[in-house]
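testing teh design pipeline on a random one, pls ignore if ur not involved
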């Protein structure tokens, strides 16, 4: 998804990733969700926005008022790949680990996650998107560090943010 900026720290990380990728134990763990994945909440939100935007990535923007995107988003997923991911993310909310927010008035699609750390409480995260009623989407990422919870338990926080946006008239 093109999250990183190339610098000396990036180059060191690349070397570590090559070592990690060549370790069969680590590859096997990644196959069932126990491999190491590093992503800041803004990057996880960007990933969800790319899925919601039919595979077209846009740069995150912080603004004080509504603005219009200028430029061409970079396509990094085919529309078919994005549609498949969007369908799977919708099922996470309707029948999966985030079903606690299935009754939300917005059609939320999302992904839960739990990051385990030896000797520390688990981190819980949830990233989601909901249609804004104007052809776009609102994307929300929640990270509860060392909360001891799992992603499904923090999904209601994202649901409440989407509800608040709807109540403020930011989405329909």
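output:
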């Amino acid at each position: 998804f093109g999250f990183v900026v190339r610098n000396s720290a990036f180059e060191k990380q690349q070397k570590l990733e090559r070592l990690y990728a060549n370790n069969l134990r680590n590859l096997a763990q990644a196959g069932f969700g126990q491999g190491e994945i590093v992503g800041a909440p803004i990057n996880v939100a960007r990933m969800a926005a790319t899925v919601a935007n039919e595979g077209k990535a846009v740069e995150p923007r912080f603004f004080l008022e509504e603005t219009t995107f200028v430029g061409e988003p970079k396509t990094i997923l085919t529309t078919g790949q994005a549609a498949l991911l969007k369908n799977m993310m919708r099922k996470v909310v309707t029948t999966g680990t985030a079903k606690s927010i299935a009754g939300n008035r917005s059609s939320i699609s999302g992904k839960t996650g739990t990051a385990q750390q030896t000797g520390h409480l688990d981190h819980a995260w949830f990233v989601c998107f909901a249609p804004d009623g104007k052809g776009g989407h609102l994307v929300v990422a929640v990270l509860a560090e060392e909360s001891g919870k799992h992603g499904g338990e923090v999904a209601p926080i994202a649901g409440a943010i989407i509800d608040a946006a709807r109540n403020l008239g930011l989405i329909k």
